[in-house]
C-alpha cells in the first residue's frame, strides 16, 4: 500500500512512537508519505528525529501563496465538494473552544480547509490509497475535510487525554463517522470514543497499541544497589502530577534515607517544580535531569530501581512500556489505559491524586526483596513484549487501512 501519515507537528522528541510505527509499516513493504503542517526542528536533538524531519513534507513551509494556489487548484475541479467541506469546516469551527488544542474558531478551520485541499492533492499526486492521522485534534480535522473534497479514505489514532477532555469542541463524532477506521491505544480509550458516536459506528473503533521494538531492549541491566532509586519521565506539565510526586517523596523520605528520584523531562512547570523541591528540602534527593534523547532515557532507566508515574491524566504512556521492556517494575496511578498494562505482577497501582498512598507504594517497593523486584522486571518484559511489539501492532494497522494479509 501507499499510505500517508498526517501529524500537525512532526517529528517531535515525544513522538518517537510514531516514527517507530512508520518504520514498522515500511518493514512490511508499505510506502509511507510523511505529511505535517509544521516542523519542530529547532527543538530536535536526536539524530533519528532530525533524519525523520528531513523525510517529512511540512505543508506550511511552502508559504501562504503556494498553499492557497495548490488548494484552489484542487477545489476548482470539485466545487461542490469544496463548498460542502467548507460548510463542515465552519460548523466544526463554531464548536471550537478557546485554549483547546486543535479547536479554535471558524477562521482557523478555514485554514484547515485549505490545508486539507493541498493534502488531498498531494495524496492524489503520490497515488496514496489511505491517509492516517495521529491525534484526534486538528490533524484528524484536516483528514476529514480532505476526504470530503475527494481525498483518500482516512483513519486516525486517538491517544488522550486531550481528545477526551473536549470531544464536542473537537467534533470527534463527525471524525469517527467519516473515518474508515478509528484507532484507540487502549481499551479505555476505545470506551471513551464509543461515548461520542452511535453504536452503529463502534465496529470501526479498534485497539492498536503504541509499540516498542523488542530488539532495542537487550538483557536488562542489574538493579542498582541500595536505594530505592526512582525515575520519573515526562513533560513538566500539570497533567503529569510531578508536584504530587514531590509531596509523596517528602512523606516517604524520613524513613528511607537512601531514597532518590531522577526526574527526566522539561516543560512549562520547571520553575514551579524546582520551587516545590526546595520548599520540601529535597534538593539532595531529587535530581532534575532535563530532556534526554532515547539513549539518555534508557540510561536513566538502567540506573533506576523502578519507574514512578504519578499522572493525573494519560492515554497509555510509552515510557511505561519502555520501563517494562528495560526490566523495571512500575509504580503508577490507576488511570486510563495504565491498568491494562501494569498488573500486580509487574508493579503497584495507586489512586490518582493521593500523595500518601503514593508514598506507601514507594515504601512497599523499598521493602520488597531484590530477587522479587528482579522477577517483577522479567515479568514486565514478558508482558510488554507480548502486548506492544511494534511489528505486530503495525500488521493490525495495515489490516485496518485495507491491506490484505
Automatic annotation (TrEMBL):
User: What terms describe the molecular function in GO for this protein?
Assistant: glycosyltransferase activity
Domain named Glycosyltransferase subfamily 4-like N-terminal is located at: 105-214
Q: Name one Pfam family in it.
A: Glyco_trans_1_4
InterPro entries, alphabetized: Glyco_trans_4-like_N, Glycosyltransferase_grp1
Please, which domain of life does this record's source organism belong to?
Bacteria
Q: Which CDD domains match?
A: GT4_PimA-like
Its protein name is Glycosyltransferase family 4 protein
Task: State the organism named in the record.
Answer: Fuscibacter oryzae
Amino acid at each position: 500500500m501507499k499510505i500517508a501519515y498526517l501529524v500537525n507537528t512532526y517529528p517531535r522528541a515525544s513522538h518517537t512512537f510514531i516514527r517507530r510505527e512508520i518504520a514498522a509499516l515500511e518493514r512490511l513493504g508499505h510506502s509511507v508519505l510523511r505529511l505535517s503542517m509544521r516542523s519542530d526542528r529547532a527543538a530536535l536533538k536526536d539524530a533519528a528525529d532530525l533524519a525523520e524531519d528531513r523525510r517529512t513534507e511540512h505543508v506550511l513551509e511552502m508559504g501562504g501563496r503556494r498553499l492557497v494556489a495548490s488548494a484552489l487548484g484542487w477545489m476548482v475541479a470539485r466545487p461542490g465538494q469544496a463548498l460542502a467541506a467548507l460548510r463542515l469546516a465552519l460548523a466544526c469551527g463554531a464548536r471550537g473552544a478557546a485554549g483547546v488544542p486543535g479547536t479554535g474558531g471558524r477562521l482557523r478551520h478555514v485554514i484547515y480547509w485549505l490545508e486539507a485541499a493541498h493534502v488531498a492533492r498531494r495524496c492524489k499526486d503520490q497515488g496514496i490509497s489511505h491517509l492516517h492521522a495521529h491525534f484526534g485534534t486538528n490533524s484528524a480535522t484536516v483528514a476529514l475535510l480532505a476526504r470530503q473534497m475527494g481525498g483518500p479514505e482516512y483513519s486516525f489514532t486517538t491517544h488522550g487525554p486531550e481528545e477526551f477532555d473536549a470531544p464536542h469542541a473537537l467534533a470527534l463524532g463527525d471524525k469517527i463517522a467519516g473515518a474508515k477506521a478509528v484507532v484507540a491505544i487502549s481499551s479505555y480509550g476505545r470506551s471513551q470514543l464509543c461515548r461520542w458516536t452511535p453504536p452503529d459506528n463502534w465496529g470501526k473503533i479498534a485497539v492498536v497499541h503504541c509499540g516498542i521494538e523488542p530488539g532495542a531492549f537487550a538483557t536488562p541491566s542489574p538493579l542498582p544497589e541500595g536505594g530505592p532509586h526512582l525515575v520519573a519521565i515526562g513533560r513538566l506539565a500539570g497533567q503529569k502530577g510531578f508536584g504530587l510526586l514531590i509531596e509523596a517523596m517528602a512523606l516517604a523520605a524520613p524513613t528511607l534515607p537512601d531514597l532518590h528520584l531522577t526526574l527526566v523531562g522539561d516543560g512549562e512547570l520547571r520553575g514551579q517544580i524546582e520551587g516545590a523541591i526546595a520548599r520540601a528540602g529535597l534538593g539532595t534527593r531529587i535530581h532534575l535531569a532535563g530532556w534526554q534523547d532515547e539513549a539518555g532515557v534508557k540510561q536513566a532507566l538502567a540506573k533506576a530501581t523502578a519507574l514512578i508515574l504519578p499522572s493525573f491524566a494519560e492515554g497509555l504512556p510509552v515510557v511505561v512500556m519502555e520501563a517494562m521492556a528495560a526490566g523495571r517494575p512500575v509504580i503508577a496511578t490507576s488511570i486510563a489505559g495504565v491498568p491494562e498494562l501494569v498488573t500486580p505482577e509487574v508493579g503497584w497501582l495507586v489512586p490518582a491524586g493521593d500523595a500518601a498512598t503514593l508514598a506507601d507504594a514507594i515504601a512497599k517497593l523499598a521493602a520488597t526483596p531484590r530477587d522479587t523486584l528482579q522477577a517483577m522486571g522479567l515479568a514486565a518484559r514478558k508482558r510488554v513484549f507480548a502486548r506492544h511489539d511494534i511489528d505486530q501492532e503495525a500488521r493490525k494497522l495495515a489490516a485496518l487501512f485495507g491491506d490484505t494479509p
